[in-house]
Amino acid sequence: MMGKAWFCGFLAVAVLICGCGSEARKTPTSRANTVKLETSMGTIVIELDKKAAPITVANFLRYVEEGFYDGTIFHRVMHGFMIQGGGFTTEMVQKETRSPIVNEASNGLKNERGTISMARSSDPDSATCQFFINHVDNSPLDYVPNTSSGYAVFGRVIEGMDVVDAIARVQTTTRDGHSNVPVEPVVIKSARVVSQ
Predict the structure, then answer these.
(1) Which of 43, 121, 161, 196 could form a disulfide with 126 if both were Cys (CB 3.0 to 4.6 A apart)?
(2) What confidence score (pLDDT) does residue 32 get?
């Protein structure tokens, strides 16, 4: 008779196959867009949330698929805050972009450590290509109704937070009127969609 022991064994195997454990939440699902950033300091893998931020994800993926980010840098690095990139070449030349997109910061996602958000100017609907990865929880960047337009979170780092931490620790300087620029360029060698 198989009884309770057999059922418990079956349940344990089912949990492993279904990926119901805590580790499973760190890996991309088959429905998720996943992008790999190969940087001069290591690899960062980002899972995008197209359900919460469809416009932002579509915009980011278009830049990725066009190879726009290849050869750009993390041009603004602030330890204990965030690392920002995707808009400047190693010579600090700002790349031309497409039209800005609407701000989706009210989607319920928070600027927590390891999330990726769109950079923008004081105009909430001014984001184009530049993004940042939150080095710590940054609740002041979140959307607050009638108070703050916030910065749109559209995904999360699922591999390579050690790389983000390493980038956040690099020495910075002021260059061509921009502050917090790494002394040695941190280059995004390539950005590629690895699942969609």
Answers:
(1) 121
(2) 67
